[in-house]
Amino acid sequence: MAERLLDVQHLQTHFFTRGGVVKAVEDVTFHINEGETLGLVGESGCGKSVTSLSIMRLIESPPGKIVGGNIYFQGEEISGLSDEEMNRLRGGKMAMIFQDPMTSLNPVYTVGFQIAEAVKTHLKLDDRAAMDRAAQMLDLVRIPEARRRLNHYPHEFSGGMRQRVMIAIALSCNPKLLIADEPTTALDVTIQAQVLDLMKGLAQEFNTATLLITHDLGVVAGTCDRVSVMYAGRIVEAAPTRRVFKNPAHPYTQALLNAVPRPDMPPGTKLAAIGGQPPNLVNLPPGCPFAPRCRKAQARCREELPVLETVDTDQRVACFYPF
Question: What pLDDT score was predicted for residue 264?
Fold first, then answer.
């Protein structure tokens, strides 16, 4: 059995605004084993990115605050660590790839300097050894002429190359956990496939566990070992990837899969859409948050909040009427 690397228990992250309290993450529980890839899936605004930022302790406060729950990394509770203690974890044992590499990379420093900075901080190498490590990482992520390109600035790279630089920075210190927050959103389909294959190969090489945040179920199918589906700040279904695609239990998961175009669809077939809008996280309705958009909703769904319960081997669903 693989050892449990990350264990998130009943995480709650709220944002205190003039309009009210935004319950962005509410009672989220999941775990990731060593060397495993977990996909966190859902529509924009469901709480995926806030979950990842909470794990990394990067929630801006005010207005955001982790108000409940526990985060265990390698068995240690980290939600109460000081900023100094978290700085030793971030970039070293835990690393993150953000959505937009152009806004994540510093435009006034060369990419070599930015990779070497992380290496010097966590691996305690001198300047020369750190730059050698930076060149090695650029070569590892398949950037041609890696040594020469150390002296180039982010704007001198294409979108796909900048994302590769971000991967190089994230993996430069051999982290145990890599959090990838929609790493291929701004890339075209061909480059997406290259970046995902690269991430998967490097994660296997370094035995790095990965939390992959995405709204693209196609990405999940080819990359993840297990899937957790989020809706309105909560996880509504969690199961191995194969099981989710073969036999989805939650109506929201079913609706997401029905909305994905398939090669066997006749020409002119209209894609299925999920009617309605996600709920207002400041003023959530009673009962199941998905009930107003659910084709199976009954009176109980509008009055009681379902909790995650096991419905099959390794499959948990928060629904009164699954399948």
Answer: 81
What one-letter code names the amino acid at 231? Y
More confident site: 189 or 46: 46
Per-residue burial over 143-155, b = 16 or more CB atoms within 10 Å of its CB, e = otherwise: beebeebbebebe
> 3-state secondary structure string, the chain?
CCCEEEEEEEEEEEEEECCEEEEEEEEEEEEEECCCEEEEECCCCCCHHHHHHHHCCCCCCCCEEEEEEEEEECCEECCCCCHHHHHHHECCCEEEECCCHHHHCCCCCCHHHHHHHHHHHHHCCCHHHHHHHHHHHHHHCCCCCHHHHCCCCHHHCCHHHHHHHHHHHHHCCCCCEEEEECCCCCCCHHHHHHHHHHHHHHHHHHCCEEEEEECCHHHHHHHCCEEEEEECCEEEEEEEHHHHHHCCCCHHHHHHHHCCCCCCCCCCCCCCCCCCCCCCCCCCCCCCCCHHHCCCCCHHHHCCCCCCEEEECCEEECCCCCC
Please give the average per-residue pLDDT across 282-308, as a whole number.
93
- pLDDT above 80 (res 186): no
Query: Which pTM was predicted?
Result: 0.91
